[in-house]
Specification:
Rossmann fold, globular, alpha/beta, four-stranded parallel β-sheet, six-stranded parallel β-sheet
Length: 273
């Protein structure tokens, strides 16, 4: 595998950019190709078979960019498709669930962990399964927050409507006296300040995007696949962005949350793959 090849990252929309942001911070030498499936979001309300089909298509597209590894920057796709696609494709494929689960287990003091995510992620029970394997004594409470994704996609990160909906969703978790909360959707770190304010300072928020970037960095180093220093320094295509719809809207949003300006987002027909 060519070590200076890019890392491929995909998500249903803009949420996976929180993973890209952490990869840029942790591995500034690496090239990245990102695909946001904006025409078919949200993934959280889709069936397992549909998510697996979408994930296969997304990976096939990223393979045309000669990527060296794939990050499924979507909790729903990680829950439903990771086990299937990592067997079907030869390059390394990682999701965003295990890294967040490990951090949550290490962070909890009272053994009560909350997980917020899409209906698909929470309904799959994947976080509970992984956390229980790490520590069978931990109690896990899942709460689906389906409106968080469209609120983030619309850019309503600091809005009274978002505050009201978040208060309703999180009230159940507050009653369970959790001390650790996993932001189990890559869109949710963009609502971190709102969630943190409602849950209170005694609750540790776990951002799987950050933990996944660290896992990816360790994997590349272990396999001798890390980019050579300086090789991408003057590369104008170091970071490439593709979507299945609404390219201009994506560009504006990505520029607002990434450390570097996104100059262009290209629209593709993902159904071809």
């Amino acid at each position: 595998m060519y070590k200076n090849a890019p890392i491929g990252v995909f998500d249903s929309g803009v949420g996976g950019l929180t993973v890209v942001r952490e990869i840029i911070r942790q591995m500034p030498e690496e090239r990245i190709v990102y695909f946001g499936d904006t025409a078919r979001l949200p993934y959280g309300s889709k069936s397992r078979d549909t998510i697996i089909r979408y994930s296969r298509q997304n990976i096939r597209f990223l393979l045309t960019m000669d990527v060296k590894a794939i990050v499924i920057a979507c909790n729903t796709a990680s829950a439903y498709a990771l086990e299937t696609v990592e067997k079907e494709f030869e390059l390394p494929v990682i999701g965003v669930i295990r890294a967040g689960a490990v951090t949550a287990v290490n962070a909890t003091r009272n053994g009560k962990i909350g997980v917020i995510g899409t209906e698909g992620t929470v309904g799959s029970g994947i976080y509970t399964e992984v956390i229980k394997k790490l520590n069978p004594d931990v109690k896990v409470t899942g709460k689906a927050c389906p409106l968080f994704v469209p609120l983030v996609e619309e850019g309503l990160l600091h809005d009274s409507v978002t505050d009201e909906i978040a208060s309703r969703y999180l009230s159940e978790l507050k009653g369970r006296f959790i001390d650790t909360l996993v932001l189990g959707c890559t869109h949710y770190p963009l609502l971190r300040s709102t969630v943190g304010r409602i849950m209170g300072s005694d609750v540790t928020l776990v951002n799987p995007a950050y933990e996944t970037a660290l896992e990816l960095k360790a994997l590349l180093e272990e396999r001798g696949m890390s980019c050579e220093p300086g090789s991408a320094e003057d590369d104008p295509d170091k970071y490439r962005f593709y979507v299945s719809d609404l390219a201009d809207k994506f560009t504006a949003f990505a520029t607002s949350i990434l450390p570097k300006q996104v100059k262009e987002t290209r629209k593709i027909n993902i159904e071809k793959y």
